[in-house]
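Late entry, evening session. Most of the bench is empty. Finally got around to the prediction I had been postponing all week. Sequence below, unchanged from the version circulated by S.P.
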Amino acid sequence: MSRSSYIFTSESVSEGHPDKVADRISDTVVDAFLAAEPEARVACETMVTTNRIVLAGEVRAGKPGASKAENKQMTKDILGTLEPLVRAAVKDIGYEQKGFHWQKAKFANYLHAQSADIAQGVDSSNKKDEGAGDQGIMFGYACDETPELMPATLQYSHNILSKLAQVRHAGEKGLEPDAKSQVTLLYQDGRPVEVMQIVVSTQHAKKIGENSASSKRILELIKPHVLSVFPDGLVTKKTKWHVNPTGKFLIGGPDGDAGLTGRKIIVDTYGGAAPHGGGAFSGKDPTKVDRSAAYLCRYLAKNVVAAGLARKCTIQISYAIGVAQPLSFYVDLHGTGEVDAAKLEKILPELVGGATPRAIREHLGLNKPIYARTAAYGHFGRTPDKDGGFSWEKTDLAEKLRAAL
C-alpha cells in the first residue's frame, strides 16, 4: 500500500550546467541534420571542458533515391556547418568566460558514418516496417500535482532555474549560467502541502563577493524570483533556504567540471518520482526509441490523467533492435484509476498506430528540428509549440480515450 503522507525531493540543473551544455550542443547537431534531411540518423555525444568542445558519434544523411555519393556529400556538407552552430548555441547560453568562451573554445568534430550493421536493422524496406534502433525499455509518467501534470518537486525545481535564466538573459549581471536547484515538499494525503527545503546554487559574478557574505547577497537577489514560481501558501516561515551553501561559486560551467551528453536523465524526466528506462534523449534523432518511445509514453500517460481516468499513470514499453512492433506495453494507475488498466493496455497502442517507431514519429511529428529547446528545464511539463515542438505534451487524445472506453 502506498504512503499518503511523506517528504520527497527532486533537483534540476540550468542550461549552463556542463552536462546541459553538452546536451544542448548534441541536440543542436540533431536539429542541423533534421533541418537538412528529415530522415537523417544522428547519435551525437558531446564532451565539454575548459575551453574545449568535442563531438563524437555517428551520423547519416541522405534522400530517398539519391546515390551513395550524393548522400555522402550531403553528410559532409552538414558536418561543415556544425562549428558555427555549436558556437552560437554556447553563446546563447551565455558563456563568455575566461575558462569557457563561445568564441575561443577549441572545437573538435569526430562524428563518423553510421554503422552499416545498425542501419540494416532499423531501415524500412518493401518487405518490412522500420525496426527499433535498439533494444530497451522506456517509461512515461503523469500525475495531477501541477497544471503541467508533472511531479511538483521537479516542476518547481525546473521553474526556479528557468526564472533565474530569464532574469539573467534580461540583463542581471550578478548571475552566471551554471546553476542547480532542489525542492523538498511535504505531502499529505498524496498532495503537496508545504515546501520544506529550497536549495539553489548559482554561479555568480566576482562583484557579488568571494566569501560567505556572498551567499546572503545571492539570496537577496534571487529570493523574490524563486518565490514567484510557487503557489501562494506553499512556502512558509518554516521553509529552510540553502543558497550557495559553500559560500562562493565563481568557477562554474565546463571550466569547473567536465560535461557529457546524457548524464542528467532523471532531471530530464520525472525527478525520481517515476522509473526511467536508462536511455538518454539528447543527441539522438527520433528513430531512436530511447527518445521517441519515451516521448510517446509521456504523451499517453498525460492523456490518461488529462481525461480524468486516473490521478497518476505510469506506462512502460519495450522493444528489440530491428523489430517494429513493441514487445510489451504496461500501464500502472497506482491505485488511482477509474478504469481497468488492462483495457488501457489494449486501447492506447491502437490510438497511435500500434506504437511502432515510424508510427510514433508520424503521430507526434518528430522528424523536425525541434530538439535543442528540450535540452534544459525538462523534456516534459512544457507547453507545445506551434511549430511542433513538445508535441508529446498535447492532450488531444483525452476525448478519444474516453470515447474508446
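Two things to note before I forget:
The mean pLDDT is 93.
The longest strand covers residues 175-188.
Will write this up properly tomorrow.
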